[in-house]
Amino acid sequence: MKKELFREHFLDYVRRELKCEFDSLDYKRRSIWMARFYADRVLRPMFPGLIPEAEEDLNECAIDGPEDCGVDFLARQGTTVLILQAKFSSIKKRGKKTTEEPETFEYFSNVLQRLYAGPREYKMNSKLKEAITDIDWERDAFVLHYITLYKPAENDWAIAKRGVAALPNVSDLPDRTTVELLDEEKLNISLRDALQQEHGQVPPIRIAFSPNAEPQPAWLCFEDSADKRLTYVGRINGAQVATLFNTHKSRLFTLNIRNYIGDTTTNREIRTTAKQDPGQFFYRNNGICAVAARIRPDESDGSVLNCENFSIINGAQTVRSLAKAHGDDARSVHQVEVLLRIVEYRPKRTEAEQTFLENVIKYNNTQNAIKLSDFRSNDRVQYSLRKHFSDLPSRGGKKLLYKNKRSGERDANYVSIGMEEFIKSVYAFQFGPDDVYGGTQDLFDTGEGGGYRKLFGDGSVDVTSDRFKELAGIWFLCEYVKQLWKERRIDAPTEALERRWMVYFAVGESIRMVYRHQGRDMVADLMHLADPRWKEGSETKYEHQRAVTKAHTEAAFQAMKKAYENARKLENFAHRNWFRDDSTLNDIRSELESFVVFMAQMPEKYMFKIGQPTSM
Asked: Which whole-number Å values give the CA distances from 331 to 137, 238, 246, 318, in the listed order?
């Protein structure tokens, strides 16, 4: 069977997406599209949620033009920042690829130093400036991938293994950063891994447990007295774990809500223990948890379980780290013992069984590295939002698809709305940027005072039709504000307007203040904006909604710039902190107050006044 090749898939991708041959592209576009292909078709299936799903957001990640500081593609999702640089070589001499200049990869490996210093020290194009504004240098994890179809220089592998250097004010940066160098051979392997992941479940597999002292069985079996569900617990050899991964790759993690993110400190420690102290591995590692649709003891070997639809739901870091360690030192990894727990679920996915499976996955993934939004994806709020959005009118001939679950799939026939983007936007509009209140952790907190509870309660009740219309109206309004903000950032860039979440708050506050001054119900008018056609429609009936939004956005811009300039005069002013400080919200309110009396005198310009609900 023909092996899948990265180079061939990439060239086909360019033909489909651009309707042209790769050779017609200039050097810069070749690199950008190679990075985009790698992100879209290789990383997306293996790391759901890391790559933006909407086409326009994917385009924004491509950093084109000069002054890109060695960045071809930059995406930030949750607390993970992905940075790619790509090098395409189409020249071969005597069957051998040309060798890359040695300083090329080394320059890329220092990219975080340049991005941290920012435009004050390095020339950066506008797209790169915009891309780095949301980076949280104190908390984010960084994934740096350098992909090349050249032959890497001799010392490049050593540089990749060394990782990044600490920054003066960010000493733990190396612990939160992984650097990967992928040549053509590794890119071929990664592509095949991604294709396998897309194909879904692994075929039936045999799990051989390590024997215990006689007469103890190799594994323990527990049966739930209520529903007769079986769970098996035992030890398996580290070499078997490595073999399972090398055979099935990412298909082992079909039901996992996260995947291996590279050589972070924790994963390097797993490898070190496996190679240097294998006898202690069992005591230092939490082990692996998996589910299977059918588990049956092997009739000929009492230490073996035959498993169907086997999927590891917690332990991807352990599995991949052991596979890497096995490649370095197979003899040591053969001495490793790993705790394995396999929970049986029933193949027939009834509602109760689906809930059981989702809860097992959820409660076996409580580490901080998990996106908290994953734990909200199955509640009634999110399912009802998905249903409400599907009932709205089409926009541009495409239905709206609310993606309450992270997914590697993109469908060109739908306008996709990501859950985290939606919640961050409406929260910022109503209360302020989530960074002011504690970031993503607070945003998805259902506890008393948590951001999620402010918006939806504890997630156990469906969103009502009226509340949905209000939220959808805010979402579409923020979408339009985002468009205006981008235009302003290009035409008249200013540090005060770097982060759109603060812009959303300022626009929301401007609207609220005018409506309060007039004694009018703002919510009723926002509900009428839940018709997605007003944002882009060319019909006359939509002109007023857009004009009002533009007027409030301009007021927000002016108030933010004045508040920023005043704050900048203070002795302890810090640019990044300005966007996270709750006092900034009050400063913006104060500046807006000077506009309110003026704006309230022209309600026809600053109030939507849509009138009767339009037919939806």
From this structure: 40, 10, 17, 18
Tell me the one-letter amino acid at 67: E
Whole-number Å distance between alpha carbons of 50 and 38: 13
* CATH topology for the 6-193 domain: Restriction Endonuclease (3.40.91)
Tokens of residue 602, six digits: 């022209």
Are 368 and 353 contacting, i.e. CB atoms less than 8 angstroms apart? no
pLDDT at 351: 67
List Cα–Cα distances, 513 to 5, 245, 502, 598, in angstroms.
59, 58, 16, 12
d(CA 392, CA 400): 7
Residue ranges of domains in the chain: 6-193, 200-370, 380-606
Give the three-class secondary structure for 395: strand
Written in H, E and C, the secondary structure of 499-542 is CHHHHHHHHHHHHHHHHHHHCCCHHHHHHHHHCHHHCCCCCHHH
Q: Using CA atoms, how far apart are residues 45 and 59, in angstroms rounded to an integer?
A: 18
**Report field, pTM of the whole predicted structure over 0.85:** no
State whether residue 557 is helix, strand or coil: helix
For 346, counting Cβ atoms within 10 Å of its Cβ (0-12 exposed, 13-18 middle, 19+ buried), the class is: middle
Rounded Cα distance, 290 and 298, in Å: 18
Q: What is the pLDDT of residue 201?
A: 59
Residue with tokens 């902190």: 577
Q: How far apart are CA 261 and CA 142, in angstroms?
A: 9
Give me the average pLDDT of each 10-residue run along the chain (616 residues).
Answer: 83 89 86 92 78 72 86 87 88 55 85 93 88 85 93 90 87 87 93 73 86 85 86 96 87 64 65 93 93 91 91 87 91 96 82 75 58 64 91 87 65 79 94 87 83 85 93 96 88 84 96 91 92 75 88 95 95 85 95 85 80 39
> For residue 129, what are its two tokens?
């400036």
| Distance separating alpha carbons of residues 502 and 577, to the nearest angstrom | 12
Q: Is the peptide bond before 217 cis (omega within 30 degrees of 0)?
A: no
pLDDT at 199: 59
Q: From residue 315, how far is each of 138, 207, 250 by CA, in Å?
A: 26, 16, 12
Report the interhelical angle of 419-430 vs 500-518 (nearest 10°).
50
Residue closest to 319 by CA, chosen among 372, 371, 256, 366: 256
